[in-house]
Design a protein that fits this description.
By secondary structure, the chain is an alpha/beta fold. 43% of the residues lie in helices and 13% in strands. It contains 19 helices and 17 strands. Helix 8 packs across helix 18 and helix 14 runs parallel beside helix 19.
Length: 538
C-alpha cells in the first residue's frame, strides 16, 4: 500500500503494540521461560506464535504468554528502530501525536489482574516518550494515550478525531472502510513501511532548526555558530558544524535493520582512539535514540588517484587492527554487517538480496531480464562450482580465532588526504568481526573503485602476509560468490527504501533516478562478466 505525504502535517495517530513497541525479544525470553518453544534464537513474535499455536492447547498457551509479555514481561521489549527519532522530530515541528490502542485492561486468564495499560504507560515513561513529572526537562513527545476496549471502538475513535494520518501494523485497521477521511499507513510487514521510510516520506529533509536542536542537546556546553550540509554521502546524512571555533561532523544514520550502524562506528572508533590507532576520525558524542553521532572534522580531499602507497596504508591499518584483536575489550564486539562466517552465509545473502528486488521486477523490465536471464543462471553454475571446491565445511562457522576485526566497507572511497599528505580513514558503520576472506574479496570487487591487476595482486599478497596463507584456498572459491553479491549491491538503487535513503542523504539525486538506474544496471552487467571470466582462474 503506497502513501503520499500531502500538505502540512498537524496531527498523527499511532498504534502502540508492534508499531511503537517491539516485543520480539520479550516473546523470545518468555517462550524460553515457560518452555513453550525449544529454540527461540532470532525468532520473531509471529514465528513464536505459530510454533506455540501448533501445540496441544496452543491457543490458550499463546493468550497466556501474550498477557505475560504485555504485562510483567514488557521490560524486555524495546522501541522499534527510528520511532523515537520520528516522535522527536514531530515534537520539534509542533505535530501532535496521539497513541490509540485497543489494548485490554487485563490479559486473558490473568488471575492477578495486572494492568496491561499501566505497564505500557510505564514503558513509555521509561523510554522518555512521555513526560516524567520528576524530571522537569523531559519532553512530552506523545500528547495523549487513548485505550479502546475493542478494535471497532478503536476504528470509530480514529474516524472521529481528525487525524491527518494513522499508523498501524494491522491491515484490518489500515484498510478499514470506516477510515476514508484518514490517510492510513501500514507499518512493517511485507507491504508496510519502516520508521525510516515513514520519517523520510512525512517529514522529509531535516531542517536547520532541527539540526541545531540536535547539536545543542548532544553538546549543550558548546556555542554553535555555523551549520552546513555536506552532499555526496551514500546512506547517512552529513552536516558540518562549527562549535566554539572547532569544526565537527554531525552524522544522521539510517535506523532500520538488525545492524546498528551508529554504535558499530562510534564504539569501534572510541576503542581504537583509546588504543592510539592513528589516522581515524575522533568520536565526540552521540545520541542513540535520535540516531546521530558527532565526530571531529577532517579537512582534506577525497582520493581520486590511487596507487601502491594507498594500498600499503590500508594494509598498515589492517596490521594494527590484527594486533589488537586479542584485546579483551573486543571480545564481545558485534559481528560486522552482513558478516559471512561460512560459505552458506554468502549463498543466503545472495538469495535475500534477490528477494529484495521482487517489487522492482514488476516495474523495471530491463532489471527483470538481467536477473532472470543472466544473473540467476550464473549464480546456479558458480554455486555448484564453489560448493564442490569449498575447503572443509561449507555450512560450518569458522572458529572465533580465525575471525578478524574488519572495517568491512573499506577502500579509497572512505579515505581523505590532508594538506600535509596524511591519509585518514572514515566510515566504520559496518565494523565488526568477520572472515578475512570477505574483506579481501569486497575490496577486490568494490563498485566505488577498480583495482588494476598489479594493485589487486599487491592487495591480496599483503592481506595473506597479515592473515596467513591458509586462507588462500577459501578465498579462491569464495571470490566469485562475493562478486555476485556485488552485482546486487550495485543494483541497490532499484530498492525503494534504499533509494529514499539516498535522496534523504543527497537530494540532488531525486531528479536523476532513471539515468542512475540504467548506469547501475550497466555496471552490474560488467561486474557479472568479470566474475564469469575469472572465477575459475583466481
Amino acid at each position: 500500500m503506497v502513501f503520499q505525504a500531502h500538505g502540512k502535517v498537524k496531527r498523527i495517530g499511532i498504534d502502540l503494540d508492534n508499531t511503537i513497541i517491539c516485543y520480539d525479544m520479550a516473546f523470545q525470553l518468555a517462550a524460553k521461560k515457560f518452555k513453550l518453544v525449544d529454540d527461540v534464537t532470532s525468532l520473531s513474535k509471529e514465528s513464536i506464535r505459530n510454533k506455540i499455536k501448533r501445540r496441544e492447547n496452543g491457543e490458550k498457551q499463546w493468550q497466556q504468554i501474550q498477557g505475560y509479555v504485555y504485562g510483567k514481561g514488557i521490560k524486555k521489549a524495546h522501541l522499534f528502530p527510528g520511532v523515537y527519532r520520528f516522535l522527536w522530530r514531530c515534537y520539534n515541528r509542533g505535530v501532535i501525536i496521539e497513541i490509540v490502542s485497543h489494548k485490554t485492561e487485563y490479559g486473558h486468564f490473568d488471575t492477578e489482574k495486572y494492568s496491561l495499560r499501566q505497564a505500557a504507560t510505564q514503558f513509555l515513561l521509561e523510554n522518555e516518550l512521555l513526560q516524567n513529572r520528576e524530571q522537569r526537562n523531559s519532553k512530552q513527545l506523545i500528547s495523549k494515550i487513548t485505550f479502546a476496549d475493542t478494535q471497532q471502538d478503536k476504528i470509530s475513535y480514529i474516524a472521529d478525531n481528525n487525524f491527518d494520518y494513522f499508523i498501524d501494523d494491522l491491515e484490518e485497521i489500515v484498510q478499514s472502510k470506516h477510515l476514508t477521511n484518514v490517510q492510513s499507513i501500514l507499518f512493517n510487514g511485507v507491504n508496510g513501511y519502516s520508521w525510516d521510510e515513514i520519517n523520510n516520506s512525512l517529514l522529509k529533509s531535516w531542517t536547520e532548526q532541527e539540526l541545531l536542536h540536535i547539536v545543542r542537546e548532544v553538546m549543550p556546553e558548546k556555542t554553535i555558530s555555523l551549520l552546513e550540509k555536506v552532499e555526496g554521502r551514500g546512506n547517512s546524512e552529513i552536516n558540518k558544524v562549527v562549535a566554539d571555533d572547532n569544526i565537527y561532523i554531525v552524522k544522521i544514520y539510517p535506523q532500520s535493520g538488525s545492524h546498528n550502524r551508529l554504535l558499530a562506528e562510534y564504539n569501534s572508533l572510541k576503542l581504537l582512539e583509546e588504543l592510539s590507532v592513528p589516522y581515524l576520525q575522533i568520536p565526540v558524542a552521540y545520541d542513540q535514540g535520535l540516531g546521530i553521532a558527532i565526530y571531529d572534522y577532517i579537512e582534506g580531499e577525497k582520493i581520486t588517484n590511487y596507487g601502491s602507497a594507498n594500498i600499503k596504508q590500508m594494509l598498515s591499518l589492517l596490521t594494527i587492527l590484527n594486533t589488537h584483536k586479542v584485546r579483551e575489550r573486543f571480545v564481545n564486539f558485534n559481528l560486522a554487517s552482513n558478516a559471512c562466517l561460512k560459505g552458506s552465509d554468502i549463498e543466503v545473502q545472495i538469495e535475500n538480496r534477490l528477494k529484495s528486488f521482487d517489487e522492482a521486477l514488476d516495474t523495471h523490465m530491463e532489471l527483470k531480464s538481467f536477473i532472470n536471464d543472466q544473473f540467476i543462471p550464473a549464480f546456479n553454475d558458480i554455486l555448484v562450482w564453489s560448493k564442490n571446491n569449498w575447503p572443509k565445511s561449507y555450512t560450518k562457522n569458522l572458529p572465533n580465532s580465525d575471525l578478524i576485526l574488519s572495517p568491512s566497507d573499506f577502500g579509497f572511497h572512505n579515505m581523505i588526504r590532508t594538506q600535509s599528505g596524511d591519509l585518514f580513514f572514515y566510515d566504520f558503520e559496518y565494523f565488526g568481526w568477520d572472515d578475512p576472506v570477505k574483506l579481501i574479496a569486497d575490496v577486490s570487487h568494490h563498485a566505488a573503485f577498480e583495482l588494476s591487476v598489479e594493485h589487486e595482486r599487491l592487495w591480496l599478497n599483503g592481506c595473506l602476509d597479515i592473515y596467513g596463507q591458509s586462507i588462500l584456498e577459501r578465498y579462491r572459491v569464495a571470490w566469485p560468490l562475493y562478486g555476485l553479491v556485488w552485482c546486487l549491491i550495485i543494483l541497490n538503487e532499484y530498492n525503494k527504501s534504499l533509494w529514499e535513503r539516498r535522496i534523504a542523504a543527497n537530494g540532488v539525486l531525486k531528479h536523476k533516478k532513471e539515468r542512475i538506474l540504467l548506469i547501475q544496471l550497466d555496471k552490474a552487467k560488467k561486474q557479472l562478466s568479470k566474475v564469469l571470466d575469472r572465477y575459475d582462474e583466481i
